[in-house]
Amino acid sequence: MSSVHERATYCRICEAACGLIATVDGSEVIALRPDRDHVVSRGFACAKGTRFAAIHDDPDRLNHAFVRRAGKLERAPVGAVLRDAGDRIRELRERYGPHAVGVYVGNPAAFSTLTPVLAMAFVRGLGTRNYFNAGSLDCNNKFVVSRAVLGSPALHPVPDLDRAACALLVGTNPSVSQSSFVNAPRMVERLGALERRGGRVFVIDPRRTETARMVGEHVAIRPDTDAAFLLALLHVAFDEGLEDARTLRRHANGESELRTAVLAFAPERVAPFCGVSADVIRRIARTFATANGSFCHVSTGVNQGTFGNIAYAAKLALELCTGNLDSPGGALMQRGAVDAAGWAHRFGFDREPAHRSRVGGFAPVLGALPSAILADEIEQPGDGQIRALVVLAGNPLLSMPGGERLRRALASLDALVSIDLYANDTAAFATHLLPSTDWLEREDLPLAQVQLQPEPYLQLAEPVVAPQHERRHDWHHLLDLSAAAGIRLGGSGSSDRVLRTALAAGGPRALLAPALVPALGPRPFARLQRAPHGLRVDREKRDFLRRRVLTPSGRVELFPAEVWVRLGELEARMRDADHEHLLLVTKRERLGHNSWLHNHARLGADHQCAYVHPDDAERLGLEQGDSIRLSAVRPDGQALELPVAVSADVVPGSVAVPHGYGHEPGAGWRRAAALPGANVNALADTGPGAVDRLSGMCRFVGVPVRAERAAGAVRETAE
Ligand SMILES: Nc1nc2c(c(=O)[nH]1)N[C@H]1C(S)=C(S)[C@@H](COP(=O)(O)OP(=O)(O)OC[C@H]3O[C@@H](n4cnc5c(=O)[nH]c(N)nc54)[C@H](O)[C@@H]3O)O[C@H]1N2
Ligand SMILES: Nc1nc2c(c(=O)[nH]1)N[C@H]1C(S)=C(S)[C@@H](COP(=O)(O)OP(=O)(O)OC[C@H]3O[C@@H](n4cnc5c(=O)[nH]c(N)nc54)[C@H](O)[C@@H]3O)O[C@H]1N2
Ligand code: SF4
Ligand SMILES: [Mo]
User: Fold this and answer.
1) Less Cβ crowding at N or C end of the chain, within 10 Å?
2) Which atom of ligand 3 is closest in space to residue 46's alpha carbon?
3) pTM for the complete prediction?
4) Which helix (H) or strand (E) holds 500?
5) Which residue has the higher pLDDT, 346 or 122?
6) CA of 106 to the centre of ligand 2 (A)
């Protein structure tokens, strides 16, 4: 008798969380296809999701645990490696104190329901201030700005895609990425529908992207100038009396400071800096302010620049001032199935710890210090120096700035524990490797995204197959590692007991059920099991401005001083922009995901190029396929060489380079390790000077680089 059956699940690679149907034969996943019955994705999924069985079955997967002895990795039982790692952590903490052990949590952890909870409990248990995550590489500007403007780092508007009449996309390429801070599969299709309804879509991007080719009007902006562009839109809105005076009066503070600030950003002044004409700026501002429902979605291309705080504050101000914040067709403030923001606020979980980083004195954001100081915290001797690092679902060597500098720092650690699907590039320096389950082996709910859904829903994905080999859930590893190291989860005996008892008695569901009861009733999991393709939860009232703003004043704070401190610097940059160097911009690829998924021919792209405009190519004497040498402008700058792709799609003066390449020869993902390519983050700066004081964000966008023709393609080299 055949045991072939089907099971509904969802993909946990990116924020779209597309519904999938898995065909399973015994313990084998034979196929994954888009789920046509999914309540939101409705048959949409990309090739990464439908080909994920190749990752699940990859012969290079980390299926067992390893420990390094005398320089060589040796396989050992998981329990033994956990004990050994625990002993090392215990010794180092006893000898050097709690800050000697650092933790880095990477992006995929966010797609697991329990991992973030256990990771925070583990960090609190260690009592270390040296906790880092991908937030300072990605979106911390949004957290700090929302905290100041709306009262909580967890409050963010999402585009009302299906009702809007005007969409402004700034620094996002949803055709490739499905964007971020929004759980909206089929976004480009829905933007196309918006246009067919007679609405307008503007794609503000230094590259004519895959998205810009499919929808809307492309506005080619110079890199790292969006804050000025958005302030110019506000300038026009105020100047032409297009603001919603009633909303401002009833719900906002700081209007007059904002009005004063935007005076300096008249379209005519901003135009030469942004490379966008004053006419176009005015037209976009008028369209946005007068359309029957507008949103402005600002994403990573802006977050990763210099002025991400101002840009996000300007975006929120633009939406509020034009009456679009939490208004149908505009930028919705969703309550979602679980009101995580309100709940965290009530219990004080959104308060930051009081500590500061040793290097640079930075305040944590969501508990985490800026990643761009990790190398310094490891290398700088003294009290509190990091001696051991636990890396969970991350690949800091390639995702953080630093290149050689960071490589040297990671190699100098006394212990590096990597908990991952693979022995990734960072793990080439690991002393302990622990194998994790993937999402086909795991139960999850899209809890991190519930307040970022234009159409609120929940879905319970039960494991499609049992964990293979010796793979274990990340939360399970953390539970055992903390016990082995003598650490109390959450930092106290009682929190440790609560977590362990709940997980032992009812598994993850015991912990989660109470949070789901308000939306789903007394037996939430039974209800979710009856809705395998997802369950829509409609609890939405457009009551945000009246009831749910969490600032002390209960009003939207348009002009918190700390958010706007770099305004003077922006004005100075506008007067004195760098036209001498090429400015770096980011580029994601359709296949591949940050540094991972490169290990399979049908998933990862197989070559990395630097994209430059024909004018720049000509000036530099470069032709398609030639090698370009890019070097950081700073004194100790590193350099790399890549094949060049000449493309009129990128704005003159910029160079677009995908990240996540330059894999370590010693990594366990053998195909990936053999790919050509270079770590573009060798060009990005590290150290306290490279970090935004408020958000801890480092900079990947707008980094000035020297460019010249090179003789041949080689790996990244230190100068
Ligand atoms: N296929 C694929 N999908 C992914 C990922 C992946 O690696 N591959 N990564 C996932 C992750 S972790 C994230 S955070 C999301 C990110 O998803 P998005 O936020 O959509 O980010 P990107 O796809 O990087 O698109 C950023 C866009 O910003 C543009 N840009 C660069 N500099 C500037 C600038 O100065 N101004 C403006 N206006 N635009 C600029 C780039 O040209 C690019 O088109 O994607 C997720 N989805
Ligand atoms: N130049 C440049 N640099 C960037 C960016 C950019 O646009 N340009 N983007 C930044 C952004 S937005 C992000 S989010 C970061 C990402 O930074 P990271 O999260 O540090 O890096 P990833 O490459 O996503 O690596 C994820 C790792 O997690 C593993 N993994 C996947 N699923 C699981 C799981 O379920 N459990 C465990 N334990 N491991 C798992 C993968 O095998 C891989 O090794 O990179 C940042 N770096
Ligand atoms: S867009 Fe692709 S990677 Fe993202 S959730 Fe959907 S199937 Fe997965
Ligand atoms: Mo990200």
Assistant:
1) N
2) 2
3) 0.98
4) helix 493-520
5) 122
6) 5
